[in-house]
C-alpha cells in the first residue's frame, strides 16, 4: 500500500484520481455547487437582481419580505435581495483577491526558504514568527483603521498577515520533498534550480496549498465581513454583506430581516468553502501525508 | 529541557523586540502628519502651523525616528505607554481598567466552549459515522462558518428583542454576561469539538487501546481511562491556541454588546485616532499572545519528551 502511495505521489497528483475521491464526498459537492451558483449570481447580478440595488424608494422603507420584494427592503427602501445579489460580487472579489495574493507570496517565500535554507530561510521564517505574534484580525483591524476605511485597505490589511500560513506549510513540504530521490535524479541530470523547483518540487507541494487556499477563502470572507461590519471596509452606499448587517443592527426591532438575510448569505458562502476545503483535504489525503 | 527553554526564551525576546518596533511604527503609517492629527484632536479643526509644531516638539515627533522609538520603549518597559489623546488619562490605567472585563468574558466563553465541545467531540468519535456524529459535525461546521457578529445579533433578536429575557448590552450583572459569552464561546466550541473528535479517533487506533479492549475491559472504561486522558493532551494545546481566536472574537463581541473591555477600548481608539492607546493595546495583546504560545510550547515539550530531544 505504502509503495503504491509513493508511486502516485512521485508521478504528481493525478487529477482524475482526486476528482473521483472528491465526487464521493457529498458535502464537498454541495459546497462546490453553492460556490458555482454564487459565481453565476455575481457574474450575472444585473440580470438576476429585480431592482436597482442603490435606488432609494423612501415610500417603501422597511417593508417585510414578500410585500413586492422577495427579502423586503432596508431603511432607505432599497431592495434587500438585489443588494445581496450585488454584494456577492464584493465578497467573492475580496476572497479571491486576498487568497491569490497571500497564497502566491506565501508559496514563493516558503519555497525559497525551504529550498535555499541558511540565512534566507532564517530571515523569512523570523518574519513569519513576528507577524504570527499578532492575532490576525486585530492587526488587520488596526491597519485598516489607521489607513482609513476602504475596500482596498481591508484587502491590503488581510494580505499583510495572510501569507504567513502558506509560507510555513510550503517550507515544511519543500524541505521533505527536496530530499527525495527524484529531485536528486533531476539534479544529477543537470537540471537547473528553477527547473527542479517548478517541475519537480512545486507540483508535489501543491496539495496542502489547495486545501489551505479553499479554507482560506472561508476565513478571508468571514474576516472581511467582520471588518466591514465594524465600519472599516466597504462604505455605504455600496452593497456589502458585512456593512448591510451593520446597518440592520439599528432596525432589529422593526425590520429583523435586515439582520437575518445578510448574515445567512455570509454563513452559506463560508460554509460552502469550508465544505469544499474539507472534501479536498480528504481527497488529497495521500499527497498531504507524503508532503507533511 | 534547559537548552530548549533557553532557545525559546531567546526567540521570544527577538519576537517581542520586532513586535515593539512594528507597534511603534503603526503611527507612522497614517496618511498625513501625525502631529497635525493630534493637534486637530486637541485644539479643533483650524489649528495654526505654530500649534502643530508645538505639538510635534511636545510629543518628540521632531526627533529622529529611532530616538522616538527608544523613548517610547524605555517608557513601555516602565509601564508608561503615554497618555490617551482622547481622555488624557495614562494608557496603562485605561488598559488595566478594561482588562478584567475582557478576562471575564474570555474565561466564561472558554468554559462555555469546553462544556459544549468535549462531550460532543467524544460522542462523535466513539459513535463514528452514526447519525449523532454526522449531526454534531455538521453542527460544528455551522459553528465554524457562522460569523460571530451575526450570531450575537440573532441571540439579541431572540432573547432580548422577542422574549425580553436578557439585557442587550452592558456589564455588571451575570445576565449581561450570558449572551456575549455564548456568542464568543460557540465558534471556539466548534473548532474544539472537531479537534477532540479527530484526536480521540487517532488514539482509538493505538495498540494500547487494542490491548485494553482485548483484556476484556468494557468500552466505557477504555474510553474514560485510556483514550480520553491521552486525547486531551492535544486538546489542551488547542484550547491554548484558541487564545488568539478568543482575543480576536472579543473585539467584535465587545463592540456588539457594548462590553467595556480591551477590544472595545481598541475599537474606540481606532475611530478616535488615539495613537497611544492603539499602540498600548496592540503591544499588550501581542505580548500576551506570545507568552501564552510560549507556555503552550513549553507545556507540550514537558508532556512529550520527543519534542525536547528533537530540538537538542
What does it look like?
The complex is a heterodimer of chains A (292) and B (312). By secondary structure, chain A is mainly alpha-helical. Chain A has a single domain, classed as MetI-like fold (Orthogonal Bundle), CATH 1.10.3720.10. Chain A contains 13 helices and no strands. In chain A, helix 5 runs antiparallel to helix 10 and helix 7 runs antiparallel to helix 8. About 2% of the residues of chain A have low confidence. Chain B has 312 residues and is an all-alpha fold. Chain B is built from 13 helices and no strands. Chains A and B meet through helix 6, helix 7, helix 10, helix 11 and helix 12 of A and helix 1, helix 6, helix 7, helix 10 and helix 11 of B.
- Which oligomerization state do the chains in this entry correspond to? heterodimer
CATH superfamily of chain A: MetI-like
CATH architectural group of chain A: Orthogonal Bundle
* Strand and helix order of chain B: HHHHHHHHHHHHH
- In round numbers, the mean pLDDT of chain B is 85
Give the termini separation of chain A: 18 Å
CATH structural class of the domain at 93-271 in chain B: Mainly Alpha
Low-confidence stretches of chain B: none
Number of helices of chain B: 13
How large a portion of the residues of chain B is in β-strands, by DSSP E?
under 5%
Give the overall silhouette of chain A. Answer: elongated
Total number of beta strands of chain A: 0
Low-confidence stretches of chain A: 4-8
Order of helices and strands of chain A: HHHHHHHHHHHHH
Largest sheet of chain B: none
The separation of the N and C termini of chain B measures 9 Å
Amino acid at each position: 500500500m505504502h509503495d503504491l502511495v509513493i508511486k502516485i505521489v512521485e508521478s504528481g497528483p493525478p487529477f482524475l484520481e482526486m476528482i473521483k475521491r472528491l465526487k464521493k464526498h457529498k458535502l464537498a459537492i454541495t459546497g462546490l455547487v453553492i460556490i458555482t451558483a454564487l459565481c453565476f449570481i455575481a457574474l450575472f447580478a444585473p440580470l438576476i437582481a429585480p431592482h436597482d440595488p442603490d435606488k432609494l424608494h423612501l415610500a417603501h422603507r422597511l417593508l417585510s419580505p414578500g410585500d413586492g420584494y422577495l427579502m423586503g427592503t432596508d431603511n432607505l427602501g432599497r431592495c434587500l435581495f438585489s443588494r445581496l445579489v450585488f454584494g456577492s460580487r464584493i465578497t467573492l472579489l475580496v476572497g479571491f483577491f486576498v487568497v491569490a495574493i497571500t497564497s502566491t507570496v506565501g508559496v514563493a517565500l516558503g519555497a525559497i526558504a525551504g529550498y535555499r535554507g541558511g540565512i534566507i530561510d532564517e530571515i523569512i521564517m523570523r518574519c513569519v514568527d513576528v507577524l504570527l505574534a499578532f492575532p490576525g484580525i486585530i492587526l488587520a483591524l488596526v491597519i485598516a483603521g489607521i489607513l482609513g476605511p476602504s475596500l482596498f485597505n481591508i484587502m491590503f490589511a488581510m494580505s499583510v498577515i495572510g501569507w504567513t500560513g502558506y509560507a510555513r506549510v510550503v517550507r515544511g513540504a519543500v524541505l521533505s520533498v527536496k530530499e527525495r530521490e527524484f529531485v536528486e535524479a533531476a539534479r544529477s541530470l543537470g537540471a537547473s534550480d528553477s527547473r527542479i523547483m517548478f517541475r519537480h518540487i512545486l507540483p508535489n507541494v501543491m496539495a496542502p496549498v489547495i486545501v489551505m487556499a479553499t479554507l482560506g477563502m472561508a476565513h478571508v470572507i468571514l474576516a472581511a465581513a467582520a471588518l466591514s461590519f465594524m465600519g472599516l471596509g466597504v462604505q455605504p452606499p455600496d452593497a456589502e454583506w458585512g456593512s448591510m448587517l451593520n446597518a440592520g443592527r439599528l432596525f432589529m426591532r422593526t425590520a429583523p430581516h435586515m439582520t437575518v438575510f445578510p448574515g445567512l448569505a455570509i454563513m452559506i458562502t463560508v460554509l460552502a468553502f469550508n465544505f469544499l476545503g474539507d472534501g479536498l483535504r480528504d481527497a488529497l489525503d495521500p499527497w498531504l501525508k507524503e508532503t507533511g | 529541557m534547559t537548552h530548549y527553554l533557553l532557545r525559546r526564551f531567546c526567540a521570544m525576546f527577538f519576537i517581542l523586540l520586532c513586535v515593539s518596533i512594528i507597534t511603534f511604527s503603526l503611527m507612522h503609517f497614517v496618511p498625513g502628519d501625525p502631529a497635525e492629527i493630534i493637534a486637530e484632536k486637541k485644539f479643533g479643526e483650524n489649528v495654526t502651523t505654530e500649534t502643530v509644531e508645538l505639538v510635534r516638539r511636545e510629543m518628540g515627533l521632531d526627533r529622529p525616528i529611532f530616538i522616538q522609538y527608544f523613548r517610547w520603549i524605555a517608557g513601555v518597559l516602565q509601564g508608561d505607554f503615554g497618555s490617551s489623546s482622547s481622555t488624557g488619562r495614562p494608557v496603562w490605567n485605561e488598559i488595566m481598567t478594561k482588562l478584567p472585563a475582557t478576562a471575564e468574558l474570555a474565561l466564561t466563553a472558554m468554559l462555555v466552549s469546553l462544556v459544549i465541545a468535549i462531550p460532543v467531540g467524544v460522542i462523535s468519535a466513539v459513535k463514528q459515522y452514526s447519525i449523532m456524529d454526522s449531526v454534531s459535525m455538521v453542527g460544528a461546521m455551522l459553528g465554524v462558518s457562522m460569523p460571530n457578529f451575526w450570531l450575537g445579533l440573532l441571540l439579541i433578536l431572540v432573547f432580548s428583542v422577542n422574549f425580553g429575557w436578557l439585557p442587550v448590552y452592558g456589564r455588571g450583572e451575570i445576565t449581561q454576561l450570558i449572551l456575549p459569552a455564548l456568542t464568543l464561546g460557540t465558534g471556539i466550541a466548534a473548532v474544539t469539538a472537531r479537534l477532540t473528535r479527530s484526536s480521540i479517533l487517532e488514539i482509538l487506533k493505538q495498540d494500547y487501546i487494542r490491548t485494553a479492549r482485548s483484556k476484556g475491559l468494557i468500552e466505557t472504561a477504555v474510553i474514560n481511562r485510556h483514550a480520553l486522558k491521552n486525547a486531551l493532551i492535544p486538546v489542551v494545546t488547542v484550547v491554548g491556541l484558541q487564545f488568539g481566536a478568543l482575543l480576536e472574537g472579543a473585539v467584535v463581541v465587545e463592540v456588539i454588546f457594548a462590553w467595556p473591555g480591551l477590544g472595545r477600548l481598541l475599537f474606540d481608539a481606532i475611530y478616535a485616532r488615539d495613537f497611544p492607546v492603539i499602540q498600548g493595546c496592540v503591544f499588550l495583546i501581542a505580548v500576551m499572545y506570545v507568552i501564552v504560545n510560549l507556555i503552550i510550547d513549553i507545556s507540550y515539550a514537558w508532556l512529550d519528551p520527543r519534542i525536547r530531544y528533537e530540538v537538542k
